[in-house]
Amino acid sequence: MFSNADVSVATAVLQWAREYLCTPNEKMRRTRNGSAEAVCPFVKASLESNHFYIEIRRDINGQSPDPIAEAMFKYRETLRTVPPFHASEQQRKSLIVIFPELPTAGAAVLDLVHSQIKSAFVRDGLMVTQCYPGCDMRSVRNPELRVYESPYPLMAMRMMAIHDILFVNDNKEWFSAYHLGSALTSAILRHCKITNSHSWKPIRERKPVSPGSPFLRQKNVAKLRHGDMGPDHCWNWPRDWEHL
Question: Cα dist. 225→29, 66, 150, 201, 240 in Å?
C-alpha cells in the first residue's frame, strides 16, 4: 500500500529512470565510434512494457545492513513471480526497491549489502546493483560517467544478460558464480582460449557483430559451468569487447 508520500518517491524514481537512464548520454558509447546511448539499455523496454516494478520500504532505516540484505533475498522470488513469464521476455522486467528512510550520509551501507548478496544473485541468474544520492561508482565503459547516483537510496534487480560479464569480471567470486543460466555463448569460446596465466585472451581480431549474427542467437549458448574449467581460469575478461 502506497501513501501519498510514497507516490512522490516513486514518481521521482520514475522520472530519474526515464530522463537519465533511458536518455542517450554523450558519455555512454558502447562502441568506439558509436552514437550516444542510454545509460541502461534495459530500462526503456521495462518501462514501456509496464514491467518496471517498484517497492518502497520505509521500515528499513539502514542502521544495519542485515534487514536490507534479508529483504533483497526475498525479492528474488518476487521478481520471478511477476509477469512477463515467457522466456523471450524475461529481461523486460525489473524490480526497484527504494529505501527512503536511509539518510544520505549513511546510504553507502548499500555498497556493503551489494558486496554481501551479489554472488548469490548471480548464481540465480540475476543482476543486482545499488544506487543512492552521491554514489561515486563509475561506468565500466567510461570512468568519467557516474551512473549509480539516484534521487533516493535503492537497489535494483533484473534477469541476467550476456553482457553482464562486464559487471562481474573484477571479482573472482562473482565470476565463478556467473552464468547466463550457467552459460556463455559458444561464439565467445571461439574468440577466446584458456591459458595457464588464468585469463581469457582473444584468439583472432574482433569483427563487428550484427543483430542477426549467430553470436547473439540463444541456440548457440553453450553450457560453461565454472566447475568445468575451474574458476581460476576465467575471471579476467577484456573490457573492450565491442560486441558485448
Answer: 31, 30, 35, 19, 23
| Dist. CA 111–CA 106, nearest whole Å | 10
How far apart are the C-alpha atoms of 113 and 70, rounded to whole Å?
A: 10
User: What's the CA gap between 117 and 99, in Å, rounded?
Assistant: 17
What kind and span of H or E run contains 221?
strand 221-223
Rounded to an integer, what distance in angstroms lies between the CA atom of residue 46 and that of residue 137?
A: 23
pTM of the model: 0.71
Cell of 109: 551501507
Does residue 239 or residue 82 have the better pLDDT?
A: 82
pLDDT digits (tens, 9 = 90+) for 162-176: 666 555 555 555 555
Q: Which residues pair with 155 in a beta bridge?
A: 97, 130
Please state the φ and ψ torsions of residue 93, each to the nearest 5 degrees: -100, 145
Taking each helix axis as running N to C, give the angle between helix 65-80 and helix 109-123, from 0 to 180 degrees, rounded to the nearest 10. Answer: 40
Cα–Cα separations (whole angstroms), residue 238 to 178, 183, 191, 201, 206: 16, 18, 12, 8, 12
The 3-state DSSP class for residue 46 equals helix
* pLDDT at 77 > cutoff 70: yes
Letter for the amino acid at 168? V
Check whether the bond before 84 is cis (ω within 30° of 0).
yes
Domain limits, the chain:
4-160, 166-233
DSSP 3-state assignment of 193? strand
CA 187 to chain centre: 22
In which residue are the cell numbers 516513486 written? 10
Which range, of 9-13, 14-18, 102-106, 212-216, averages the lowest pLDDT? 212-216
